[in-house]
Amino acid sequence: MSHREPTGHTSVRPLIAIPARFSATTSALRYAAEVNARALIDAVWRAGGEPATVHPADPEGADVAARLARFDGVLLPGGGDLAPHRYGAAGVHETVYDVDDLQDAFDLEVARRALDSGLPLLAICRGLQVVNVALGGTLEQDMGGPEREHRHVVHPVAIQRGTLLERATAGAKAEASCYHHQRVADLGTGLTITARAADGTAEGLELPGARGWFTAVQWHPEDTAHEDPAQQGLFDAFVAAAREHGG
């Protein structure tokens, strides 16, 4: 699709859909809210994109493909855990938190529709897990507590050469700001691992042969993108792909 800039302007920002996250309370609003992280929005804006928060409506009552058709790219952000039944788990680990059935249903459908249509897709943290589950993969519900989980840590990740992730970050190593207690167990159909932490955790995924630009990271590049060109480079590459897709 093509967004036309009014006369006198030389460029237009590609429109980036970012599914909202449900929040029970916020300091600036009196009631529950739909939000996205300011650092994430800032990173997309710095890259030249126009970030647009999208309401997670029930996909059975709203055509997700039609809703996404007006956008040039999709960013699946971090958030709470997916319900374990979404990937066939028999029980629920005590550490699973912030599960929301509507959020899960919407995010999973967004992932499927974006990949099916070739819409540029960047998936972050929960977003990576959503894509993995959408393609039939599974998750490890808990990595094993404070001694093993990747919460509030910055650690190096080794990036596979020749991947979109390596081209975006301009290197085979990156310093990743992580906040997750779950990780990929079984890979979804067609996915390959593009980055790993020292403990073997999958920190990046891609889909060779995908119809459009797609990469996913388990870390939060927005945390340090304002000061780390490698992390901002991921948003820059994503928005560039969205601009090309939009024409």
From TrEMBL:
Secretion signal, residue range per the UniProt entry: none
Gene Ontology cellular component terms for the protein in this record: cytosol
GO molecular function per UniProt: gamma-glutamyl-gamma-aminobutyrate hydrolase activity
GO BP of this protein: polyamine catabolic process
Keyword terms of this UniProt record: Hydrolase
PANTHER family on file: GLUTAMINE AMIDOTRANSFERASE PB2B2.05-RELATED (PTHR43235)
UniProt name for this protein: Gamma-glutamyl-gamma-aminobutyrate hydrolase
Organism: Streptomyces capitiformicae
Phylogenetic classification of the source organism: Bacteria, Bacillati, Actinomycetota, Actinomycetes, Kitasatosporales
